[in-house]
Amino acid sequence: MLFSTLISVGALLVAEVAAHGAVTSYVIGSTTYPGYTGFSPSSSPPTIQRQWPDYNPTMTVTDPKVKCNGGTSAALNATIAAGSSVTAKWSQWTHQQGPVMVWMYKCAGEFAACDGSGKNWFKIDQMGMTAPPLTGTSWGTAVVMAKLAWTSTIPATLAPGKYLIRHELLALHQANTPQFYAECAQLIVTGSGSATPSGTALVTIPGYASQNDPGIMIDIYSSTATTYTPPGPAVWTG
Ligand SMILES: *[C@@H]1O[C@H](CO)[C@@H](O)[C@H](O)[C@H]1NC(C)=O
Ligand SMILES: [Cu+2]
């Protein structure tokens, strides 16, 4: 019995690892930029995406790993015009309850020195739950599961410069056990805009919300809430 228990625990772990996911490519215009697909340090080709150590979710919003899934640098970058769109793609994703949030961060200098620190992250896009119930599939992450893709527009007035873009899936399918999946990529934004977010639009990551935020610590099976507010600031549209 012990032996078979161990086998089923092992099978469960394998299934759960297989159930996780990460952005595996980015499409900008007609160009597809491969994402990172191995565990760092990578022997795979250089990418615009910062390398991460594993597929495992980050379990707390205050864990430094939540920033870019532990990724700190990438060799490449992609150029994108402000006002145009970027599509992130996943090769697999299996959780349907929880928001999608897309964030950016303006690098003060070169990418190599851009560590995502300080109160400089802002949201450019998000989808929480558009209709109850909480256990249903009217969620941002359900869209990702169906399409394995998520398209966002870079605010048209955003000042040009070097930016990180961070795609975050917050999986809420385990009661009071949120799982954060976030990856970052390096973008050079072009254009003639001069808008920069300020004030309450800007937050630190980690730390954009408390672990007890109702959008993070939630039991979707017992809560009777009919609406849901993603954690963190409102989307900055420029
Ligand atoms: C962007 O990547 C290219 C290589 O694709 C590199 O030549 C260039 O220096 C990079 N730009 C920055 C600002 O890092
Ligand atoms: Cu998972």
From TrEMBL:
<protein>
    <recommendedName>
        <fullName>AA9 family lytic polysaccharide monooxygenase</fullName>
        <ecNumber>1.14.99.56</ecNumber>
    </recommendedName>
</protein>
<keyword id="KW-0119">Carbohydrate metabolism</keyword>
<keyword id="KW-0964">Secreted</keyword>
<keyword id="KW-0325">Glycoprotein</keyword>
<dbReference type="InterPro" id="IPR049892">
    <property type="entry name" value="AA9"/>
</dbReference>
<dbReference type="GO" id="GO:0005576">
    <property type="term" value="C:extracellular region"/>
</dbReference>
<dbReference type="GO" id="GO:0008810">
    <property type="term" value="F:cellulase activity"/>
</dbReference>
<feature type="signal peptide">
    <location>
        <begin position="1"/>
        <end position="19"/>
    </location>
</feature>
<feature type="domain" description="Auxiliary Activity family 9 catalytic">
    <location>
        <begin position="20"/>
        <end position="228"/>
    </location>
</feature>
<comment type="function">
    <text>Lytic polysaccharide monooxygenase (LMPO) that depolymerizes crystalline and amorphous polysaccharides via the oxidation of scissile alpha- or beta-(1-4)-glycosidic bonds, yielding C1 and/or C4 oxidation products. Catalysis by LPMOs requires the reduction of the active-site copper from Cu(II) to Cu(I) by a reducing agent and H(2)O(2) or O(2) as a cosubstrate.</text>
</comment>
<dbReference type="GO" id="GO:0030248">
    <property type="term" value="F:cellulose binding"/>
</dbReference>
<dbReference type="GO" id="GO:0030245">
    <property type="term" value="P:cellulose catabolic process"/>
</dbReference>
<keyword id="KW-0624">Polysaccharide degradation</keyword>
<dbReference type="Pfam" id="PF03443">
    <property type="entry name" value="AA9"/>
</dbReference>
<keyword id="KW-0136">Cellulose degradation</keyword>
<keyword id="KW-1015">Disulfide bond</keyword>
<keyword id="KW-0732">Signal</keyword>
<dbReference type="InterPro" id="IPR005103">
    <property type="entry name" value="AA9_LPMO"/>
</dbReference>
